[in-house]
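In response to a reviewer's request, we include the raw inputs and outputs for one of the modeled complexes. The three entities were modeled together in a single run.
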Amino acid sequence: MTLPVYSVAALVTGALLVAGLAGPLTKRPRWAVALGVVTALVAAYFSAHQPGTTPLITHAAAIFLIVALLLGPALELHHRQQRPEVVALTLLAGTGAIVLATGGDLLQLIIGMETLSLSSSLLVALGRGESAPEAAFKYFVLAAVSLTALVYGLGLIFVSTGSLAFPSGPLTPLLSAGLVLMTAGFAFELALVPLHWGALDAYTAAAPAAAGAVMALSKLGAIVAIARLAPLAGGEFLLVLAMVGLLTAVWATLGALAQHEIRRLLAYSAIAHAGFLAMAAGSGAAGRQAAIFYVVVYGATAMLVFAALAGLGPEPIGIGELPERLGLQRSLALCLGLMSLAGIPPLPGFWAKLALFGPVWQALGPVPTIIGVAAAVAAAVYYLKPVPDLWGSLRLSAPRPRGNAGVVVAGLVVLVFTVLPSIVWANIGTV
Amino acid sequence: MSQWLAWSFLFTVPGLVLGSTGAVKRPGLASIPGPIAILALAVAWLVGAGQPTAIELGGWLPFVPDGRFLLRVDALSAFMLGVLGLVSACVYVYSLGYLEGDPGIRRFFAFLDVFVGAMALLVTAGNLAVLLIGWTGVGMTSFFLISFWRDRPGTLYAGLQAIAANAVGDGALILAAVVVPAGCGDLASLQRCTGGLGGAPLLAALIVVAASAKSAQGPLYFWLPSAMAGPTPISALIHAATMVAAGVYLLARTYPVLALTPAAVGATAVLGVVTALFGAVMSLRQTNLKRGLAYSTVSQLGYMFAAIGFGAPFAAIFHLGSQAFFKALLFLAAGVVIHALAGEEELAAMGGLGRALPAAMLAFVAGSASLFGLPLTAGAFSKDAILDAGFGIAPLLAWSLIAGALLSGMYIGRLFFATFYAPPPDEPRHLHPVSPTLIWPLLPLAIGSLTFGFAQFPLGGLGHVLEPALGPGEMLSLSSPAGIVAAWLGLLGFIVGTRWRVRRDEGARPLPERYGWVDWASSVSVAVAEGFARVQNGRTGRYVLATVLGFAAILLASRFG
Amino acid sequence: MPITLTVLGTSGLLFALGATGVMLRRNPVAVLMCIELMLNAGNLLLVLGARARGNDAGQAAALIVLVIAAAEAVVGLGLALVLFRKREAVDIDEPRAVRG
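The model returned the following structure tokens for the whole complex.
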């Protein structure tokens, strides 16, 4: 896996361009969005044509970016001047995720992670409402603490091996400690228990458009980085990773059961899915492949769900209020997304679960798999609870908040993954 | 022709599109050709001795052991499609009248179309992956249809109960699909897929659990009576004739795998018999007409499970066909009564309707006769087949089923009398007119309930047709002692049942039934959940502490784990 | 190698001090300072490791980490400012609106 240099360059250039032209672009926010979308497309194009890379990561990131940018008007900002900044930050977050996933040596991974974390914190902070700055600060502090673990881990590895590259030699205690620390640092980005606190609050309080982007990109970058790094730390660590994943899945599923507000429910759900990702990543080579499939498919579904909720205002949205507040298109999108999260075939969330549990069974045995399956199917209860009311209230005349292009794109992507999951699977390559 | 039949899961798509987009003015009309097409093609296949065929599209799901899109049409799937087509055609026509004027009628028919498609996919599935799609699909549409009436309290709770039970079954089936060795998953050769961890017993156990969840057997029965919160046509189609029978279908289809583990087969027999008796007893205690019929369904499904346990998958499928006819008939007849009484389902409010609703009364008689096993009816023959098989394997269990025949007669007699001939309540009662679309569909189902048995007796036609899939079918005779005893007991029970008065002061039980233990389970889990949520107390300092300690814990775990 | 032990010891001590501070301090600026301390503990490992292993990449990495830390400080202080601007107590445990 090599860094798609031209794509990264394109994204950074686009971000700088938007930031530099922030003045004139403030009055023409659609141009800023257009510029951002073009940048993402250019980046995707470059990665498809650069030899030696698997473009899946970049393409997935580009899709997430495009949906997030199209939802820009729904970002509920304090000041209009912030709109170009949001575009630039989103592009930089995408860059960070790509670098984190595909970086060539350990330092590049850290640079990518920090770019992603800082951009995410700012994106979370830019929403309207009282709770956005609070959530952003919490997320930031925990990101900073994780960074210290990353840097210290890097230092330990460097002292052991004398190089910043991915270590390949025999495992000394120092080296393994360094690898564990670094992987744990990335586990924060993935939002695993007991490091998930800030992410939970960030996903809740951010504007849904931003929350979706932050969530999808961070999981994409983090899981690939973990998948590349964790095996180097040895078999026992993979087991620890998988067990942490199981704990996360159970913890978050239980927490979600108590939620009455839709965005917090989805935040807990994101943590639960992070747990499943970690279980897969700890389950051997087949598991790592399944994890990458899962994260791409899950990211698309998460974008769809958050896109459906975008632009409804910063106050909490109770689950019972959803039918009144969502128009036809968003209701359908939310139903589709919730059913995919619940793992209903033929939606892609189901494919992801199928892909996941085979390797988990092989690697971890029956008990963790059964617990994992139980958590996955039990979650269906709270995902599906709002759906009959949404179906029942489908009306063509309800008010329609803006930003529908993003919903449509996200919906199309999910439908493509429904029918042709092999598109993603075939392109995973070896990790 | 087989090729067409394999794609039958798509037959309701045109109706779905035309109906839900409003292209066809009258709701539901566009959807009627779908099930009729399925029925016609299936019958043509069966009587024309069509050739088994398979459709295979490789490489569809590369991440499961057997990820082909595999459809297979053989006698068993054609039979199931025939049942599906017939009952759904009747229910579609019936629903045109039953739901007339309901604001959600387009949504109703859309869900129905998706259900029929999913059920067709389930029975034509060639491997576990495709089966899972149909399996979960019918569960989902069942949930949406149970909770169809959004303005009535409790329908969502009933639906969630169905989801909960379904989740157990789906989980078991997912595990079955992923734990088999690589390349394995084809339903026709599942018995060769026993190399993985756990082997044949595990696979059999998972299949039995999945089937029990779908067919409301054993501890997972609870969702079926609650599912009566949905409209009556749904109770007839999904929760009597087709979806709940999918568990039996699965057991019959995978019988060679089950047969490798005698303990699983024995457990299925015991489970079936216990549930059969339990359902019958519970039906006697119901004050709600639909609830009484629902427990009857639980009981009859127990008979089918028992048949599987007795090593007679043919008898199980035969009874599946009989039950589809008579139970759907009973529900639709009950629906006529409920519709006439503007939604009233409590037995205490019924009585004396025999003269006012003669068609419904006759239909109910026909269905009851088949249910309790009046000689020459379909139910008599299929029950006879089960009992014959049972006496060969486990006489004690077979005698229990015969006792069950008495109970069956009793509960259906009680329901019949209370609905049609008991003294009506004192307050004057206005009966809504019943449109012909509610009456005509009763006829094919009544004919089937009374004559379906002749498909097997005396020439064994059905058995021959199904033999390639299920093994030889029982030859039936009119003089088998078990059958005669069961038939007389059934008749006796029916007569006794008509003497059973429903106490008027018992009062109505609120819909859905609130089971003590389900409530307890859900309040415990909510309490635990709130505990977890409280840990997230919003204090950044606490978060930081936990994070640092978390890093330390991970480090330590990997050193000593 | 004795150098390695000294390096590890010193940086470990710094890291532990920073970690203790981050867990115990309530003032946001203090927390950020402790985080900087922990980052510099890692930096120390990089710089001295570069010397011990003879690979200057470590020093380059340390410089990059310093830049990252600076960027982080900017963002962190900015966020802290926005959050605590209108509050009486400058205490990270105070803002508790998002919870549950």
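As requested, we also summarize the result in words. The first strand of chain B starts at residue 53 and ends at 57. Chain B has 23 helices and two strands.
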